[in-house]
Design brief:
This protein is of the alpha/beta class. Helices cover 41% and strands 28% of the residues. The strands form 2 sheets. Strands 3-2-1-4-5 form a 5-stranded mixed beta sheet. A 5-stranded mixed beta sheet has the order 8-7-6-9-10, with helices on both faces.
């Protein structure tokens, strides 16, 4: 493909820790014509340099998957990142990933991944002086800071670990259902989050139950994921969390019967959920009281709105 035919992309990245080493965050803004992607992530125990590397790596990996080979102008305020990939990495590789002082190169895992992704694109690296008012550099900095601060907000509840590789990202999902029993009106909603990237889903129907709607919310959210993910699915309902993580194995072993021999309610919904979960590694988490999240509250509002929409038609 000729130079002129490659999609032209601009990327702005930043990362950092407080303290260093310590909890850190990274952010990346990707622009193509009138489209924009915003990525971010965090790590509870890392360094400034790793976060700068992670920002660039994540952005290039996303483009490789979604758009193929691109012509990229990548802007960073990290000389470590820019000089490492444009000047130092060739010597490191030639020396068996040892520095001039015969010491192992730090962050070698990320450098190797970044080098692989750089070769998949046509990348031009640019250094920007940080905190000088460049709007996109400042936005990337705010994304990184917000991602780092999210670690503090999540204190006291299970937090997804850093995904082991870019092909299996960590995604948080919060689900809620709303049911107006007297009218038979129900709604469900899910909020999906990967870093700062958020997606919402909702649906409505009459003549069902709150439990069936809750299972449907989880299944629809999992079906919306386009590739295998490490999923951390939050609900304040034991019926969903314990049903999916504990009870369902016994139900299947007893041919969809409870311990008392009764037919399991909502079997069709549970089977749909099982099929949707096959592609992913799902951890089911209870989120109540102090462990509840803003995303769970948002899902509750969306589910209630969906239920009201059904009620108005009845």
């Amino acid at each position: 493909m000729s130079h002129s035919k490659l999609p032209h992309i601009e990327i702005y990245t930043d990362g950092g820790c407080d303290p260093n080493p310590g909890p850190g965050g990274w952010g990346a803004i990707i622009r193509f014509k009138d489209r924009e992607w915003v990525l971010s992530g965090n790590d509870p125990d890392t360094t400034n340099n790793r976060m700068e590397l992670q920002a660039g790596t994540a952005a290039l990996a996303m483009l490789k998957e979604t758009m193929g080979r691109c012509r990229i102008d990548l802007y960073t305020d990290s000389e470590y990142l820019r000089r490492g990939i444009t000047e130092w990495i060739a010597a490191w590789e030639q020396n068996g990933w040892l520095t001039a002082g015969k010491q192992p190169v730090k962050n070698q895992d990320l450098w190797r991944r970044l080098q692989e992704l750089t070769q998949a694109h046509e990348v031009y690296w640019h250094w920007l002086k940080g905190h000088t008012g460049h709007p996109l550099n400042e936005r990337a900095d705010r994304l990184a800071t917000k991602a780092r601060q999210a670690l503090q907000r999540r204190a006291g509840r299970p937090a997804p670990p850093h995904p082991p590789d870019d092909s299996h990202p960590a995604v948080e999902i919060c689900v809620k259902a709303s049911y107006r029993g007297a009218q038979g009106a129900g709604g469900w909603a899910a909020v999906l989050r990967r870093g700062e990237h958020v997606k919402t889903l909702s649906g409505r129907e009459a003549g069902t139950s709150s439990n069936a709607l809750l299972i449907r919310a989880a299944a629809q959210a999992l079906q919306a994921l386009t590739r295998p993910c490490h999923v951390y699915l939050y609900s304040d309902a034991d019926y969903l969390v314990k049903g999916a993580s504990e009870w369902i194995k016994g139900w299947q072993a007893r041919n969809w019967r409870t311990r008392e021999g009764k037919k399991v309610a909502n079997r069709a919904e549970w089977e749909t959920l099982l099929e949707a979960a096959k592609l992913h590694q799902v951890t089911w988490l209870s989120a109540r009281g102090d462990l509840a999240t803003d995303d769970l509250a948002r899902a509750e509002v969306l589910a209630a709105e969906a239920a009201r929409a059904v009620q108005e038609k009845i």
